[in-house]
Amino acid sequence: MSVTHDARIQVHKPAATAQRPAVRGWPDINNPAAWIMAVILLIMPLIANGFFLIEIFATTLILGTIALSLMFLAGYGGMVSLMQLTIAGFAAYMVAVFGISGNANISLGWPWWLAVPMALTLATIFGTLGGALAVRTEGIYTIMITLAIGAAFYYFTNQNWAIFNGHTGINNVATPHFWGVDWRADIPFYYVVLATATLCYFAVEYISRAPFGLALQGVRDNPRRMAALGFNVNAHRVAAYAVASFIAGLAGVLQVWNYRQISPGSVSVGACIDVLIIAVVGGITRPVGPYIGALVFVLLRTFALDFLVKIGLDGNRFRLLIGLGFLAIVFWSSDGVIGLWQRWRQSQVREENRPGGGRGHG
Amino acid sequence: MTRFVERHPAWALIIIIAIAVALWLIFAVWPPGLEEAIGRKRVFLNALFNGITLGGLYFLVASGFTLIFGLMRNVNLAHGSLYLFGGYVGYAISASTGSWILSFIVAFILTALVGILLQVLVFRRMEGQDLRQTMVTIGLSIVFADLMLWACGGDFYQIQTPNWLIGPIELPLITAVKSSGDPVYLRYPLVRLVIFLASAIIGIAMWLALNRTRIGMIIRAGVDDRDILAATGVRIQIVFVLVFALGAGLAGIAGVVGGTFQSLSPGEDIRFLLASLVVVIVGGMGSIPGAALGALIIGLAEQLGSVYIPTYAIVVTFLIMVLVLALRPQGLLARR
């Protein structure tokens, strides 16, 4: 396995050192931008109407959470897993199967507070088993195996009619309705999604500084040394898969409530790869990256058609745009959009600090 | 062989019994009880031959994939796109000139050119960064898929089989005995057999080229340790370009083959990418005999599975992969 030894994502030294002073407290607490962002997200229903609220922002948060689980595995564990969307889709299917849906011969009709924990448990088990399989290999092999798992699940849902209802999928999935509130109505649903995403975000940020997260980052950087120090490398990796699966499962539950249906199309191989694109475009070194990537992706997906038509091109070339953007990011910034932003900030600071002012001559 | 028998006597026994049972199933006239239990022999033989010929197609795709990986450590996730590209090129050539053989040659040359361009323009710039290369191939596969959808649309294409290959051929395998006592022989499409033979010849030629020629020696040395090979004065970049061209060209040929006995449409690229992933995971990354064995196993599992357990055919393939990963994570025939 020594050939793939260097295949993990390179650690970015500047980012690592920048985080060090913040290890003791929450890093975001002194950052005004983070506070402004939080306030904007909280009062979003006042700014945006139903379409923007759900189709753009709630979808961004859901996709971002799925990508966050990938970011957790890839950024802290060095394992690029392409099956995170599959786990989310599995959780979504389980909600539809155990809960109430239009396909009465399949759904068991459990109330949501029973179906959701069941779905989350099963999704976590599914993801952990997949992870246990994937950690038997390293680096680029992980990509291939998780991609194969995702593809197998997609073809399986297409063929299985007893549980997954074949390629039509399960429609009219019931959404929770309690305390006199319809939680799928635009504004309550937005807050449910926001709360879940916030929870996942801070959980990942907390874990990254907890002993487990630090050990995981050690495993990413040098598994042999960690093993020599007495850490069980594979157990840490499998545990990371379990955490990531739970996060992905949460997002999957929200996703099935959002669309009220689930079909093999939502767990297709292309969609699995989209999650990787989202995480990489946003940046996989910090938890905020996936959300930025998801916003870019959702905006592109929603408006690329109009935009392309407006500048006189064929509107159906949206995936070409996404692919080229992804290629550009991978070529020029291995740290995604946040990497570009940080580099720009650093160059600004350098310019200000330059004695005599760099702009005056000439 | 003898070493394997000495080291794993139990496994050797199981394998020998399995081969004996398979041979009996193929050559013997089935007793009526067996036909009642698992269906007619003709169905079984057809599935078996379909599996073997599909394995030949999978081998063509996967051998290029595994060759590129073995030498350059580059998991080329755009390999499926090269397959589909070769198929479309082959369709265009055979539709305009009517020559089936010519479509193979042109598809090979054009996909090999694409491979050379990829290696020179893209992968050379990020040598040694395996993960980044893999990400780039993902991006490329998205771009290629959309470009091909743009150029060819979402229709199904099928490459015309040449006249001299159309029609079935009678094989000396008895499927049943008529009540009059005459044996009924198996009839099977000639084109699939020819294609299987061709892929077997390509496989053997590749094996010979790798094991008996000087360039093959250089490639094998590169698989083992490319840094030392470069240090001994071999111009490794040229070797990389050659191998990438060969691997891509094989994918192009496979595209023409796939377009002849299946069909070409968007989405086939992902299907064949997945197939070659599973094949090389089962057979062992970077090993040509491993790709052959894996392709045979996966092709047989898919076809026999779709006949006898139609709902779960994909799952059988996947279970084989899981089993191999659990027992022998490096793949069946990998050396490490």
- By DSSP, the count of extended strands of chain B is 2
Count of helices of chain A? Answer: 15
Distance between the termini of chain A: 56 Å
> β content of chain B, as a range?
5-15%
Topology, number of strands of chain A: 2
Shape field of chain A: globular
Share of β-strand residues of chain A = under 5%
Shape of chain B: globular
What is the N-to-C succession of helices and strands of chain A?
HHHHHHHEEHHHHHHHH
- Weakly predicted, low-confidence segments of chain A: 1-24, 356-362
The largest sheet of chain B is: 2 strands, antiparallel
Q: Report the mean per-residue pLDDT of chain A as an integer.
A: 78
Task: Provide a compact summary of the structure.
Chain A has 362 residues and is an all-alpha fold.
Written account of the structure:
The complex is a heterodimer of chains A (362) and B (336). Chain A has 362 residues and is mainly α. Chain A has helices spanning 13-19, 32-42, 44-47, 50-77, 84-98, 112-134, 140-159, 186-209, 211-221, 223-228, 233-259, 269-282, 288-310, 318-332, 336-353; strands spanning 177-178, 181-182. A two-stranded antiparallel ribbon of chain A has the order 1-2. The longest helix of chain B has 32 residues, at 41-72. Chain B has a two-stranded antiparallel sheet. Chain B has 336 residues and is mostly helical. Helices cover 74% and strands 5% of the residues of chain B. Chains A and B meet through helix 7, helix 12 and helix 14 of A and helix 7, helix 12 and helix 14 of B.
Keywords:
heterodimer, A: 362 residues, mainly alpha, two-stranded antiparallel sheet, 15 helices, globular, disordered N terminus, disordered C terminus, B: 336 residues, 2 strands
Task: Itemize the secondary structure elements and their pairings.
The complex is a heterodimer of chains A (about 350) and B (about 325).
Chain A (H helix, E strand, L loop, with lengths): L12 H7 L12 H11 L1 H4 L2 H28 L6 H15 L13 H23 L5 H20 L17 E2 L2 E2 L3 H24 L1 H11 L1 H6 L4 H27 L9 H14 L5 H23 L7 H15 L3 H18 L9
Antiparallel strand pairs in A: 1-2
Helix pairs in contact in A: 4-8, 4-11, 4-12, 4-13, 5-6, 5-7, 5-11, 6-7, 6-11, 8-9, 8-11, 9-11, 12-13, 13-14
Chain B lengths: L1 H6 L1 H19 L4 H7 L2 H32 L6 H19 L2 H23 L7 H23 L15 E10 L5 E7 H23 L1 H11 L1 H6 L4 H26 L6 H16 L4 H21 L4 H15 L9
Antiparallel strand pairs in B: 1-2
Helix pairs in contact in B: 4-8, 4-11, 4-12, 4-13, 5-6, 5-7, 5-11, 5-12, 6-11, 8-9, 12-13, 12-14, 13-14
